[in-house]
Q: What sequence folds into this?
């Protein structure tokens, strides 16, 4: 696949099928230990996340026999519903969002594992009813193992934790191996700024040991994100080049075509920096840039990520405008629940520098936004240009493009490498070629959803893919100046839905002589 040489363009090539043959090392049928039977309590069980992600993930886990029965799911929410009505409410959401088709017999089995407690989170009666359900679950075989999933606005976390403890439903882990497991999953954003995140960490730590706290960031459960470490540390060809001597700059993009999907009130108090950059993108950046861990254990990996985040340069308050650009799509202010003069950014682009031996001088550009031209999450590693261009005459009028390694997180998950090769013929003409591996072609097996992996890991007690207190704290510290300046001074740049964001984001990289990967709608997609 040879692309003719183009003037300096950064347009990504259309995804093409890969020609990669995968040789699977080890026994592919070997599965990890199945978790012990557990009761999973979901606070906020009638909310969007429970319907869109949690219930479909739990359904798929059950269909794939990844859990030991009985695993029971107890929803807690305000609405008055019976167990059967709760199951009926979830069914269409699972049908819509499950990666596997919903089969009537499998659904009946799943529905039998669901039950529901109606009540306010500040009402003791809710916890009395929950305790009765948990006791019944223990008698059915969960033996007291519990996971509490806080899928509610962060403001009610302290109330829920306090009530859970008051009703003896949580207990700090002391001799953990001898007791039924008791874990809490906390949804992101973990706090809304550095101060509230620290308070939240303090509050949860007053009830539970760090080993019982699972701060979820679903990006870490994505196969392609986990593959970043395998690619880097499982191949000897990349790591020697993975530094400032060979890498010119790195772009990390999370572009969405959807808007805020009716979540106006949530988004107004969150914005793109808290929603995507503080967590998902800084986590991806730390996996791309961290040093090699001593082992793949939870703490060794989390130590290295944390260490890396500590070397990211802090923004000076006076310098935020030089490193960060904010945008808002036109029409956002007309969405339900959004202020007519809202300054909430739906797009942000930022430059981060890492003060370490490996990365000194290499800019990391992070960009995320809603209602953009293309749905793509991708890491582009741009290698340095060759020191001497020997092909000037032959490639006259065109630009020899440096190699780019693309880690495609989603969709069309895979890896591609763009490099220069000779075009067959008598002359030394050069062209850019693209080598692509897609997971779908290489492994011919479905990729499971991030929430499936993360829920299973939590039930197993494996915290590797969850965020530790120190790295959450550091990520807030890094973006705090941006939040502070942006919240104090209006100045969000409008952009057209279906575009690549505000032009000011292009200027951010152009002033360093770099370009973003172009965002382009998929061929045949409807006009925005
Ligand atoms: C969530 C954000 O964490 O991630 C959403 O709250 C966003 O606003 C979503 O749409 C994107 O997730 P994914 O897996 O579709 O990239």
A:
């Amino acid at each position: 696949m040879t692309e003719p040489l183009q003037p300096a363009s950064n347009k990504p090539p259309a995804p093409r099928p890969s020609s990669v043959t995968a040789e699977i090392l080890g026994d592919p049928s070997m599965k990890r230990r199945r978790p012990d039977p557990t009761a999973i309590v979901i606070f906020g069980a009638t909310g969007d996340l429970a319907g869109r992600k949690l219930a479909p993930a739990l359904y798929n886990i059950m269909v794939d026999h990844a859990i030991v029965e009985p695993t029971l799911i107890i929803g807690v929410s305000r609405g008055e519903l019976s167990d059967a009505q709760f199951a009926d409410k979830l069914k269409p959401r699972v049908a819509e969002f499950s990666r596997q088709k919903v089969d009537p017999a499998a659904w009946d089995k799943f529905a039998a594992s669901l039950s529901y407690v109606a009540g306010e989170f500040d009402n003791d009666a809710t916890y009395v009813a929950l305790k009765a359900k948990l006791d019944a679950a223990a008698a059915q075989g969960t033996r007291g193992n519990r996971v509490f999933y806080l899928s509610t606005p962060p403001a009610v976390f302290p109330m829920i934790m306090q009530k859970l403890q008051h009703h003896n439903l949580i207990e700090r882990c002391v001799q953990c191996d001898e007791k039924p497991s008791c874990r809490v999953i906390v949804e992101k954003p973990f706090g809304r700024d550095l101060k509230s995140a620290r308070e939240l960490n303090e509050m949860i730590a007053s009830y539970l040991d760090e080993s019982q706290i699972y701060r979820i960031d679903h990006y870490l459960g994505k196969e392609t994100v986990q593959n970043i470490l395998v690619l880097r540390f499982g191949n000897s060809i990349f790591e020697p080049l993975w530094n400032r001597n060979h890498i010119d700059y790195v772009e990390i993009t999370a572009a969405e075509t959807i808007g805020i999907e009716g979540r106006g009130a949530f988004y107004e108090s969150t914005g793109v920096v808290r929603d995507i950059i503080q967590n998902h993108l800084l986590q991806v950046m730390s996996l791309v840039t961290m040093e090699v861990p001593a082992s793949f254990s939870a703490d060794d990996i989390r130590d290295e990520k944390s260490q890396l985040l500590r070397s990211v340069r802090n923004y000076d308050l006076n310098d935020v405008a030089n490193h960060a650009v904010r945008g808002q799509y036109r029409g956002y202010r007309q969405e339900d629940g959004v202020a007519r003069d809202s300054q909430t950014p739906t797009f942000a682009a930022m430059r981060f520098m890492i003060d370490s031996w490996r990365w000194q001088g290499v800019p990391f550009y992070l960009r995320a936004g809603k209602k953009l031209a293309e749905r793509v999450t991708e890491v582009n590693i741009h290698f340095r240009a060759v020191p001497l261009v020997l092909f000037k005459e032959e490639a006259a009028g065109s630009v020899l493009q440096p190699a780019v390694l693309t880690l495609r997180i989603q969709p069309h998950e895979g890896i591609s490498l763009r490099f220069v090769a000779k075009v067959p013929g008598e002359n030394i003409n050069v062209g850019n070629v693209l080598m692509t591996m897609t997971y779908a072609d290489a492994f011919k097996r479905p990729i499971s959803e991030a929430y499936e992996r993360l829920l299973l890991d939590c039930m197993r007690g494996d915290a590797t893919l969850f965020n530790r207190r120190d790295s959450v704290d550091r990520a807030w510290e890094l973006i705090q100046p941006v939040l502070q300046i942006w919240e104090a001074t209006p100045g969000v740049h409008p952009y057209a839905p279906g575009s690549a964001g505000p032009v000011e984001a292009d200027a951010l990289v152009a002033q360093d002589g770099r370009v973003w990967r172009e965002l382009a709608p998929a061929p045949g997609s409807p006009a925005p």
Notes: DSSP finds 14 helices and 16 strands in the chain. The pocket of 6-O-phosphono-beta-D-glucopyranose is lined by residues 256, 275, 377 (CB under 6 Å).
